[in-house]
Design goal:
There is one protein chain. The protein has one domain: MFS general substrate transporter like domains (Growth Hormone, Chain: A). The chain is mostly helical. The protein contains 18 helices and no strands. The two termini are 21 Å apart. The protein is globular, with a radius of gyration of 20 Å. The chain is 79% helix and 0% strand. α4 packs across α8 and α11 packs antiparallel against α14.
């Protein structure tokens, strides 16, 4: 690699990491305020579970179209309008005056979130392939760092008695110029080339994509459940009911961040299969601790192990998907993201429904079989 190419690779990596860091901060604030909104609206666990379904209802169908649109317009153009829409709809959960209003607000947020998520993952995959570098885990490490920063800011705003709505609005207003300025510096991409008249291009599901989705699904199911129910878990515990309840999200996101920052170097040394298996064993251990914990510090250890365990799985899935085919890259990534985010987004309502009947700890324990299936299928992440 020439010196000029190295400089270009460093610049592209820096822009990619900056976007991954800034994009989820507002969402992290929302995650730290879920239990507050639940209390303000007087929602039971099952009612909150149905309200949280709004995000997958908006996000999952949109993913079907997002990949094809991004393939045609390019990542830069898609992100320039996806980010403003995401930040605007990110305020809506704070505006909710009823469970139905929360459902609708999260549904609209999910619609815009889909384009931002697919665009960022395609950007990282393209950067890896163009410069022959490994950055996917680090990129998602910065995403997790953004969640952690957002959750810490949300906790601090709660300590200052700032309600969820102004907290989300302030974050959106501050992040908009930052995200647009970074995105504007991304290289412009040439228009999508149409096929010749005699050709009949068809997108087909690449061989190996479904097993990758299965591996990632168990981890993202756990990741979503932990993100949305961590503060509720702490509040319901015998030691809960204080301002530090929101720190469970911070510990969890912090360990995800740590795992992703070291994930690329471990991936290079051990390979994706062994890395995935180690991570999934950590996740199973952490979930088991949370299902049985009787002390606050033990629960924090459990959240940390789960965060470390799920940290590398989705980035490994994105990299594996990008290697399956050189065509329709954004659409392939969007399908994998569809499967992954299905787990991320159905995890919270699933846990809520079970918790209403059998208790939150029992609901969390049901994540273990899904993680075990991911562990059994992890051999399909072999580097190609």
């Amino acid at each position: 690699m020439s010196e000029m190419t190295k400089r270009q690779a460093r610049a592209a990596t820096l822009l990619c990491m900056a976007l991954f860091l800034a994009q989820p901060i507002q969402f992290g604030i929302w995650l730290s305020r879920i239990s507050e909104v639940q209390s303000d609206l007087g929602m039971s666990k099952s009612t909150l579970a149905f309200a949280l379904l709004g995000m997958p209802v908006g996000l999952l169908p949109t993913l079907y179209f997002a990949g094809g649109i991004i393939d045609r317009t390019g990542v830069r153009s898609a992100l320039l309008w996806a980010f403003p829409a995401m930040l605007l709809t990110g305020v809506l959960p704070g505006l909710a005056a009823s469970p139905v209003g929360l459902f609708v607000g999260l549904m609209l947020l999910g619609t815009s979130f889909a384009f931002a998520e697919v665009g960022l993952n395609v950007l990282a995959a393209q950067t890896e392939k163009q410069y022959q570098i490994t950055i996917m885990n680090r990129a998602h490490g910065f995403w997790s760092l953004g969640i952690m920063v957002g959750s810490l800011v949300g906790v601090q705003m709660a300590n200052l008695d700032l309600p969820a709505l102004p907290a989300l609005a302030i974050a959106g207003g501050a992040l908009l110029p930052v995200l647009l300025a970074i995105t504007w510096r991304l290289p412009k991409q040439p228009p999508h080339e149409e096929a010749d008249a005699g050709e009949q291009p068809q997108w087909r599901l690449p061989a190996g994509l479904v097993p990758v989705i299965i591996v990632v699904f168990g981890a993202t199911l756990t990741e979503g459940a932990m993100s949305d129910w961590a503060t509720v878990y702490m509040r319901e515990a015998p030691w809960g009911g204080s301002a530090i309840d929101g720190l469970a999200v911070s510990v969890y996101a912090g360990m995800i961040t740590f795992g992703r920052f070291i994930g690329d170097s471990i991936n290079i040394r051990l390979g994706p299969v062994l890395l995935a298996r180690i991570c999934l064993l950590f996740a199973i251990s952490g979930v088991s601790i949370l299902a049985l914990s009787t002390a606050m510090w033990v629960s924090f250890v459990g959240f940390g192990l789960v965060g470390l365990g799920v940290s590398a799985i989705f980035p490994l899935g994105v990299s594996a998907t990008a290697q399956l085919s050189s065509q329709n890259q954004a659409r392939n990534v969007s399908v994998m993201t569809f499967g992954a985010l299905t787990g991320f987004l159905i995890g919270p309502p699933m846990i809520g429904l079970v918790a209403e009947l059998q208790g939150l700890r029992f609901g969390i324990g049901l994540l273990i079989p899904a993680l075990a299936i991911s562990l059994l299928m992890s051999g399909r992440l072999v580097r190609r």
